[in-house]
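Feature request disguised as a bug report, sorry. It would help if multi-protein outputs had a clear separator. Right now it looks like this:
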Amino acid sequence: MPRREGIYGLLAEFNTPGELVQATEAAHAAGYRRMECYTPYPVEEAAVALRFHKNRVPLVTLLGGLMGVTTAFLMETWIAVWSYPLNIGGRPLFSWPAFIIPAYEWTILFAGLSAAFGMCALNGLPQLYHPLFNAPNFRQGATTDKFFLCLEATDPRFSIMETRALLEQFSPASVVEVEL
């Protein structure tokens, strides 16, 4: 059955995290890959069931730190050697031991900022609108006591009838079509 235009996906509401994990495992076994779990607190089993393992924040932090140390050394070299050279006590103009502490500070600054901004960018934040905000049961329970599994319509395996049948076999509290 072809995908309906204007639908984001099907949202199933569960009362316990165990039901959510069981439904997520079954959806993955059935071939669904474009899905997301929404819980009021971290549920490690849900992340495992989603096969979530990509975390690029450490790489972004490392690249930011390397950019910081490189920027600091290049800036200090430029200032000490070419822009404003000072001959103090017969020392060489490129006296790299004096550059270590400021370069360390720039490394920490760039790594911290790139970690914070990189995490926000990789999470897609700020996101002022999401189609799930239109689902009434999601607004009332997602941050308090309900657990949700959303199977997205962009999944090649998605079919309204088959997907609804798959979700309803786990006896969710509700299954709702989420409009775009």
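(second protein starts here, but nothing in the output says so)
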Amino acid sequence: MTLFKKLATISAVYGGLSYIGGIFVYLQLLKYDSVSTPSEQLAIIGNNPVLVHITTLHIYILFSFGIILLATYLYLKLKDQQPALGLLSLISGVVWSTLLIASGFISMGVTAILMNGTAVSELTFAWQAIDIVSNALGGGNELIGGVFTGLLSLALYKARYSSLVTSLLGVVVFVGGIISALPYLADVGIGIFVISQILWFFSLARDITKL
């Protein structure tokens, strides 16, 4: 197994694990789902800035670099058999990663300010705007991530590089991404997207080892 292939496999596994880690931190440790107002959300972050900072680094920044590596490796595998779909999946993967990195850096900017001693009360008025921008770039809906997953899954399936399980999971991820962009259905779509993409990443990692 070449180094690039190993890194692609690791990136796929890391993608699934990063979701699991993020869910554990935000839902179990921080209880972020138990609050709804911007001031309550900021209070949780203000009480745990280091944990939020490190978690954001992993689930946004490192995750995104893994997506770029994964998308590039698979494009090189697909370019002869599925050049159009392979290129479109690469482009959408890079776009998605770029948005996630921007969102992550915005969030890390807030936690960095808090770690430097700025009082939570000084950020209360700005937090709502910061949160809106951050969510708009990555997290508020998963449309771009769904498109990337759907295109890549289709390309891999047509090239006979992936299993039926991976392909079907890719379809579910795509549908979840579409639903997440619809008004009043965002939470349902994100739930479908996240759960199915965790499974998709692990299934994809297994397929990559067989390439």
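Even a blank line would do. Unrelated, but nice: The mean pLDDT is 93.
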